Amino acid sequence: MTPPRVIAMLPCADIDEITAFFDALGFAVTYRQVRPNPYVVVDGHGFELHYYGMEGHLPESSHSTCGVIVEDTGQIFEAFAAGLRAKYGKLPVAGFPRITRPRPRKNVGGVTGFSLIDPAGNWIRFFRDRAEPAAPGSPLHESLLNAVVLADSKGDVPQAAKILRGAIARAEDGDDAMAEARDFLGELEERLAGEGDAT
């Protein structure tokens, strides 16, 4: 008996924009129709995504998401990052499209994950298929994990930056999490600047 198969069907305003975006990430179109309703299927890296055209769809109003479980988030992230840099000249971390970096996610038991937000505003969330054991961390490390959840899972970049700024100010310079926390805060500030919010 064939097991059930779940297919993500995500909204977009323009299937051709979606096609061009995923082409840069190493996907190929396996199905496309314009009438009676716009619909496209892109396939790459061992999975497929389906998109349907929806008139008036705005990326900033999107609430659609799907999850993809992979063996190695680092490998697929690097493939996407190379394609995004080739297409946009840099790694987009603000606006639409954008991508977050692979980090352990406290809200999913420490499993490493990242999010790819497509031009239509859909969140495609990638998770490693298993968690890595994590040792208890300092207060700064815990704040870093909380900031990752806020920014990369919930999209609340201003609150994540606020938490991390405070935690960095309170932490000792020798804290093992300091370099990673400062690096992530720099990324958050870049996202805020890219969104026109310098708070």
* Share in β-strands: 15-25%
What's the oligomerization state?
single chain
Number of strands: 9
Number of domains: 2
- Examine the coordinates and then state which fold CATH places here, giving the name of the CATH topology of the largest domain: 2,3-Dihydroxybiphenyl 1,2-Dioxygenase, domain 1
- Helices and strands, in order, run as EHEEEEHEEEEHHH
Total number of helical segments? 5
Q: What is the end-to-end distance?
A: 55 Å
The CATH superfamily of the largest domain turns out to be 2,3-Dihydroxybiphenyl 1,2-Dioxygenase, domain 1
Largest sheet: 5 strands, mixed
Helix/strand structural class: alpha+beta
Rg estimate, integer Å: 18 Å
Helix fraction by DSSP (H/I, runs of at least 4): 25-40%
CATH class membership of the largest domain = Alpha Beta
- Parts with pLDDT < 50 across at least 5 consecutive residues: none
Mean pLDDT: 90
Gross geometry = globular
CATH architecture assignment name of the largest domain: Roll
InterPro entries: Glyas_Bleomycin-R_OHBP_Dase
Organism: Aeromicrobium choanae
Protein name: VOC domain-containing protein
